[in-house]
């Protein structure tokens, strides 16, 4: 039996959930989204995700349709359908339906609000042994990548290009600088220093990215937010990609060549263990600021 989803104030079976073909999300990709993992039924870093969703809405000139407390009530209802299980939460807000296909933003339009959950599978244990592969490619996206917009065609094409080259992930390069993955943030380790590009309009302000930096700070690991030149990846000691549902992934092959010795590095193992500790504390509902 499928779990119900939330759409515009109602909890519905997926087969009974409908939106208009005039919805601006469908016609223009005029909307934003958020993906949140929940461990043991408890959302991970929920406040950060909801704040990023709100920031994305304001950036596209939309007022948030729900308060954080209202979101929490909706998510509690959805997550209770699979009690105690690890889940993935998907939130999407579009500008809504209008009676004309109009490029300009209508004066009065009611947003379409969707929330749904699904089971979150366990991460492949082989990743800790073999890592993942990546290729670099030109970043062809727009100039507001800090907005988590539903217009993801450029990301999709980049990821497909990586798959065409028998790689797991794409690392995007703009003006000879490595920016981020097609669906992830980027880290590099060089001479014991953990480096990630600084926040800007060129990349998404990742929730997992911020947590990795916090864990490094709290555990005395040298770290910095600094520009990563694309060619520096070729001599990196370690490369990581981070995202909310895939956590911290060690890149062990770049453009067909091994990264260092071709195995997940020691700092990745350290951060991975610290991240796992945060998840374990959340499952136990203990109070911890990494939640």
Question: Keyphrases for this structure?
Answer:
single chain, 291 residues, alpha+beta, ten-stranded mixed sheet, six-stranded antiparallel sheet, 7 helices
List the SSEs and their pairings.
Elements lengths: L4 E3 L2 E3 L11 H5 L2 E9 L2 E2 L2 H14 L8 H12 L7 E8 L17 E8 L7 H4 L1 E7 L14 H12 L4 E6 L2 E5 L3 E6 L2 E4 L10 H12 L4 E3 L2 E2 L8 E6 L3 E8 L2 E2 L7 H18 L8
Parallel strand pairs: 7-8, 7-15, 11-12
Antiparallel strand pairs: 1-2, 1-6, 3-4, 3-5, 5-6, 8-9, 9-13, 10-11, 10-14, 14-15, 15-16
Would you kindly provide a written description of the structure presented here, covering whatever features stand out?
There is one protein chain. With 291 residues, this protein is of the alpha+beta class. The chain contains seven helices and 16 strands. It has helices spanning 24-28, 46-59, 68-79, 127-130, 153-164, 207-218, 266-283; strands spanning 5-7, 10-12, 31-39, 42-43, 87-94, 112-119, 132-138, 169-174, 177-181, 185-190, 193-196, 223-225, 228-229, 238-243, 247-254, 257-258. Strands 7, 8, 9, 10, 11, 12, 13, 14, 15 and 16 form a ten-stranded mixed beta sheet that branches. It has a six-stranded antiparallel beta sheet with strand order 2-1-6-5-3-4. A hairpin with a 2-residue loop joins strand 15 and strand 16. The model is unreliable at 286-290 (pLDDT under 50).
């Amino acid at each position: 039996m499928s779990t119900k989803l939330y759409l515009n104030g109602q909890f519905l079976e997926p087969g009974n959930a409908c939106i208009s073909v005039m919805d601006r999300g469908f016609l223009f990709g005029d909307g934003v989204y958020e993906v949140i993992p929940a461990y043991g039924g408890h959302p991970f870093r929920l406040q950060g995700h909801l704040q990023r969703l709100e920031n994305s809405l304001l950036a596209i000139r939309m007022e948030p349709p729900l308060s954080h407390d209202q979101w929490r009530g909706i998510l509690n209802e959805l997550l209770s359908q699979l009690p105690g299980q690890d889940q993935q939460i998907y939130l999407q807000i579009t500008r809504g339906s209008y009676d004309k296909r109009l490029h300009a933003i209508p004066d009065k339009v009611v947003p379409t609000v969707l929330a749904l959950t699904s089971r979150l599978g366990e991460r492949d244990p082989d990743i800790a042994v073999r890592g993942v592969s990546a290729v670099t490619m030109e970043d062809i996206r727009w100039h507001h990548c800090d907005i988590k917009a539903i217009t993801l065609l450029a990301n999709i094409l980049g990821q497909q290009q990586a798959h065409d080259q028998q790689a797991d992930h794409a690392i995007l390069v703009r003006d000879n600088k490595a920016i981020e993955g097609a669906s992830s943030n980027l880290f590099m380790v060089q001479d014991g220093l953990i480096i990630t590009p600084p926040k800007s309009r060129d990349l998404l302000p990742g929730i997992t990215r911020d947590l990795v930096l916090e864990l490094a700070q709290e555990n005395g690991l040298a770290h910095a937010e600094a520009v990563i030149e694309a060619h520096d990846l070729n001599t990196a000691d370690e490369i990581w990609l981070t995202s909310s549902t895939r956590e911290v992934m060690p890149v062990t092959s770049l453009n067909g060549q091994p990264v260092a010795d071709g195995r997940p590095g020691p700092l990745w193992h350290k951060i991975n263990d610290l991240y796992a500790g945060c998840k374990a504390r959340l499952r136990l509902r203990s109070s911890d600021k990494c939640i």
